[in-house]
Every structure is written in C-alpha cells, then in structure tokens.
Amino acid sequence: MEELTSNQLNKIPISASPFPRIVILGGGFAGINLIKRLNKQRYQIVLFDRNNYHTFQPLLYQVATAGLEPDSIADPLRKQLEPVKNFYFRMAEVFSVDPERKTISTEIGELDYDYLVVATGTKTNYFGNDSIMQNAFPLKQIPQALDLRSHLLQNFEAATISRDEQEIDSRMTIVVVGGGPTGVEVSGAIGELKKNVLPNDYPELDFKRMRIILLEGLGRLLNGMSDKSGEKSLEYLKKFEVDVRLNTMVKSYDGLKVTLDNGDIINTHTLIWAAGVQGNYPDGFPEDSINHGRLLVDEFNQVKGAKDVYAIGDISLMLSDEYPKGHPQVAQVAIQQGRHLAKNLKYALKDKPMEPFEYHDKGSMATIGRNKAVVDIGKLKFGGFAAWIIWMFIHLVSLVGFRNKIIVLSNWIWNYFTYDKGTRLIIRRFVMKNKIME
Ligand SMILES: Cc1cc2nc3c(=O)[nH]c(=O)nc-3n(C[C@H](O)[C@H](O)[C@H](O)COP(=O)(O)OP(=O)(O)OC[C@H]3O[C@@H](n4cnc5c(N)ncnc54)[C@H](O)[C@@H]3O)c2cc1C
Prior knowledge:
32% of the residues lie in helices and 23% in strands. It has helices at residues 6-9, 29-37, 60-64, 77-80, 130-135, 142-161, 165-171, 181-201, 227-239, 331-349, 385-398, 402-418; strands at 21-25, 44-49, 53-55, 74-76, 87-91, 94-98, 103-106, 109-112, 115-118, 122-124, 173-177, 211-215, 242-245, 250-253, 257-260, 265-267, 270-273, 277-279, 290-291, 294-297, 309-311, 316-318, 364-367, 373-377, 380-383. The chain is globular. It starts with 5 loop residues before the first helix and ends in a 20-residue tail after the last helix. The relative contact order is 0.16. The protein binds flavin-adenine dinucleotide. Flavin-adenine dinucleotide binds next to α2, β2, α3, α8 and α10. Residues 25-31, 48-51, 55, 57-58, 60-61, 93-94, 119-121, 139-140, 181-182, 280, 282, 313-315, 329-332, 334 line the site of flavin-adenine dinucleotide.
C-alpha cells in the first residue's frame, strides 16, 4: 500500500466527486437555508460547524431564564440536512481560509474547495473591555445560556444561607447591559421570574430586595425599532419593576462591582452583557475583504478580494443606498441570503448570470414577559396581547424541527396557565473559571 505524505494525511477525508465542491462554514440560519435549497444540485456540499446542532438564538434568553430546555431550541445538523444529496457534515472549529490556495484549515485538518461560503455569524463584542469580558455573562450559545441559568439559581441558593446583608443584596441584584431586543427580553423574563416564580421557591428571601437593572447607553430602548415600540417596551419593563437607566455606560465590572461612567457603583454578582456583537470570520482574509468587522460583499454576496468566496447572514456586509450601513443582523436577512445564494449557485451551473440580492423586510418584534410584546410591521406599530400572540406564532413557525415546535408550544402553554417555569435546574454547577470565552 502506498504511504500517504504528511500533506495528504492532513487532508480531511471526503469522498471524491465529479461535481464542484462547495464548502460552507456555519450551520446557522444562513448556512442551513442555503444547503436545503441546494438539494439535488450537481454540487458536492460540505458543511463545517463547531457544534453538531443548529441553535435558535432568538429563544436563548428563555433557556437562560428557566423557561425552556436547551434541547428544544437546538436541532442536530445531520438530522436536519439528512435529505440533502451529496452532503457531508464535519464537526470542527474552522481556523482560517487561504483564498489563494482555495483551502480551509480546521481543527481536524485541511480541505480544498471550489466555492467557499462563510456563514459563521457573530460573536459577543466587549468593545475591548477586558474586565467585562472576564466577568460578564454573554448570551450567544446554548452552553452560555445554561451557565447563566445555573449562576442565577446558585445565587439564590447562596443568598438563603448568607449572613452578610450586603452579599444577599448583591446576589439578588441582576444587571443587564444593552437595551436592544436581547437585553429587553432577558430583563422582562427575569422580571417575570421575580413576580411569579422565585418568591415561591425561596420563601425565606425577601423579594422586595431583588433588583433588576437595565443599562442602555442611548436615550431609548430598542433602537432598531420605532419610537413607539421603544416607549412601550420601557412602560412594560417598569411594570416588572425593572430599573431602566438610559444614557448610561458601563466602565468596568470586576465580578462584584459595576462601575458606571457617571461614577456610580452597583454591587452585583451578575452582569449580563447584551450590548453588542461583532463579525466572527476565520483568519486569512485580505484586508480589503473586511469592513466594520464584517466580510464586505457585493450584491451577489461575493466577498471582495477573495475569488469564489461568498459570505451570507450576520457576517456579511452588503452596502447599498437603502442600507448604507448594511442589513440588520437578524434571522430573516440570513435566511433570505442563504436561499438567494442557492438560487445564484444553481444559475452558475447553467452559465446564467447571477441576480442581485434584495432584502424583503418582514418587520421586527420583541417580547417583554407574558401578554406583552411590541411589533413593527411596515407602517403598523403596536404592542400588547395581540403583539405577544404574533411574537409567539412567528417564533414557533421559525423554530427548526417539528419536535421542537411541539415542545416549545407545550412549555409555553404550561407556563402560561400555571405561572410556572419548569426548568429551574442546576444541572452542572457554574464556576467562573469555566466561563466560555468567545
Ligand atoms: C440572544 C440573541 C437573540 C436574538 N434574537 C433575535 C430575534 O428575536 N429575531 C431575529 O431576527 N434575530 C435575532 N437574533 C439574531 C439572529 O439570531 C442572527 O441574525 C442569526 O442567527 C444569523 O444567522 P447566521 O446564519 O448568519 O449566523 P448564526 O446563526 O450565528 O450561525 C453561525 C454558525 O456558525 C458556527 N460557527 C461560528 N464560528 C465557527 C467556526 N470558527 N468554526 C465552525 N463553526 C463556526 C456557529 O456554531 C453557528 O452554528 C438574536 C441573536 C441573539 C444572540
């Protein structure tokens, strides 16, 4: 038998194919929608993801606040994409790309491509603040949501046995930073826990002492939505006794003390960081491919300065007259770009010219506890119960996997009628030294 060279040994084994190979990095909304639409095409498709599952990020906050099990917002990528022909999945962290050699480098070796699609989304942006990066809780991945859930519950357990009044207050104070949809939704969900759940679980604690503080650097909440939705969300949060502080920036957090830019100090064991994301692309791209931390693409999602490389979803930056700062980093853009690129790659097989991408904005929404949400759809802007029903419906139909839809719906019905949240479990104790860095 012929011996393999070290170069060959480092190649990830994938069957030979007469078809061009498309390598896709990331099985998020963009990646899976692209792959599903490429089924039965004359391409070999290879997907890489560091996890073997797709994460439905819009409901991560419900996992963190004991509303849902983690399994119900995740779906195995192999199962999800099983019907796709000529498809291979490899679970691996991707480190870098070499657009000259048309190769990617991963933790399990290298692979050549004919076309590369980068769909690796975003990671938490701490804006270079090390103290916050070390000590705050981000909310981008399922393990992070589980860590936050454990940490919140561990704090209440610890508060019941503490004799130190200051420590009890600090453990019962939760600071959320960022008044976008994630910050607003997580604050509302914790408000609901405070109102309906925690006082029953911990009768020995005085919940008048529990504080939820939402800090936002701008002068309003939900900056990407209408003024009306921003104002309504503020009104709803006040009903949950959330102390919303606008025009307030965090300077540092040492794990026990948040220092604000106005000099104020808040003592807390928990700082949830929902203040921003940044592009999460592999190394190796030339400088002119990158703009504002995202991969700069043309109207066909082709990355500037990297031949046969495309970027879709949160990681891509497509500048246009209508979107001079690029599209919003939301699921609908990722889904539509994935589907659109599939269409263009089919055209490429037939030597047909590609079509430019056009975003169809279906609206935006956020929920703030039971019966309350805000919705902007075109000129229609409203809040309250109807908005909440629409929010639930849209999230249910968008969830990946039929099983997940059923589980989430039954959980929501249970929570609604019992005022309970069934997953107040500390499955794995959280310790700060094991915090997942991005
Ligand atoms: C907490 C939260 C709440 C949100 N709420 C909403 C909402 O309500 N509505 C809405 O429209 N949008 C919401 N979003 C935004 C939405 O989730 C994103 O716009 C969407 O997920 C982008 O899809 P994507 O495919 O570009 O990236 P992602 O869905 O982030 O997928 C990226 C994939 O790439 C993989 N990956 C990344 N780096 C590597 C690597 N180096 N190697 C291997 N694999 C890698 C990841 O594991 C992941 O599977 C929310 C986001 C968060 C974090």
